[in-house]
Design brief:
alpha/beta; Metallo-beta-lactamase, Chain A
Length: 316
């Protein structure tokens, strides 16, 4: 179970960064949704890394949009309490019922809030592979998060997806047309992104990044991740919503695709030439630091973790 937690919340070797004392000292979450596009709202966590007592388990972003038939929530946080706070925030915007929840993937900081948000008639949507992982590790994740946060996240009730995606789908929800996009395990098994073509908004979960380096965990499929980023680039979204970090634009996706392509090729060619990881890290820092360090908050530490992880993938 511990290995699952370490993989699910790898976060390029960081435990927690960029906490805000103003919210960390308040025991209650009073989220203030920010409109990012017409009828689309964000709830952005200022914390990046593992759940801790300081951040009270709130380490991932959630989003929602309001349709003529109800509200859709994309990712629900890492505890039932956080889910309840998200639901309260939604009620400050609309009295529409919460009809749909989309869980972007199986990592617990993105779905343990399901029970705090869902109503009796809420459909919870995820890819089948992700739902299988949730069922396998959910109870362990609740216990692990409670330990990490010194009990603050509590004993979250587990509410699993009820609508399992097995193929790419298009749906019309109220006045919103949506398309589900699969990353083919780019970040983790069972990732799903969501695209609103009329609004030109993409919801990316941990497949997409803004302030921090792309999250590469041991189970990631880097070539498929790069392919997914290039697919998103072709969509040319106006708004990019990520699992962690601030709302961004397609320029961040282009940046990540270019970086990962460069790093993956360095690791592949270096491995084939018999280089050690530290040699490739030194080369990458020499070639990439001036261009990319200003673009990410964690480039120096994360480039080392990325290369170490990618190197191990070469022999898999």
């Amino acid at each position: 179970m511990l290995m699952h937690i370490r993989k699910a919340l790898f976060f390029t070797g960081l435990i927690t960064l960029f906490s805000s004392n103003a919210w960390a000292q308040n025991n209650d979450f009073k989220f203030s949704p920010e409109m990012v596009s017409h009828n689309i709202y964000s709830i952005i966590s200022p914390s990046f890394g593992l759940p801790t007592a300081e951040n009270k388990g709130w380490n991932s972003n959630s989003y929602f949009f309001v349709t003529e038939q109800g509200v859709l929530v994309f990712d629900t946080g890492s505890s039932e309490a956080i889910g309840k706070s998200i639901k309260a925030a939604i009620k400050t915007v609309t009295n529409q019922p919460i009809r749909w929840i989309v869980n972007s993937h199986s990592h617990a900081d993105h779905w343990l809030g399901n029970a705090g948000i869902a109503d009796d008639n809420t459909e919870i949507i995820a890819k089948k592979q992700a739902a299988n992982t949730m069922n396998k590790y959910g109870k362990d994740d609740v216990k692990a998060f409670a330990r990490m946060t010194k009990g603050i996240t509590g004993n979250s009730q587990l509410l699993y997806p009820s609508k399992l995606l097995t193929s790419i789908e298009k749906r019309s929800l109220g006045n919103m047309d949506i398309e589900f996009i699969f990353s083919n395990n780019g970040h983790s098994e069972g990732d799903v992104l969501m695209w609103l073509p009329k609004q030109k908004v993409v919801f990316g979960g941990d497949v997409l990044s803004s302030d921090w380096m792309p999250i590469i965990i041991p189970d990631a499929n880097v070539p498929n991740l790069i392919a997914t980023l290039n697919k998103v680039i072709k969509l040319n979204p106006d708004v990019v919503l990520t699992g962690h970090g601030n709302v961004t634009t397609v320029e961040s996706v282009k940046r990540d695709a270019k970086l990962l392509t460069h790093v993956w090729q360095l690791v592949k060619s270096g491995y084939q030439a018999g280089k050690k990881p530290n040699e490739i890290i030194t080369q990458a820092r020499a070639e990439l630091t001036s261009s990319y360090a200003p673009l990410y908050k964690n480039f120096t530490s994360a480039i080392k973790e990325q290369i170490t992880t990618m190197y191990k993938m070469q022999s898999a």
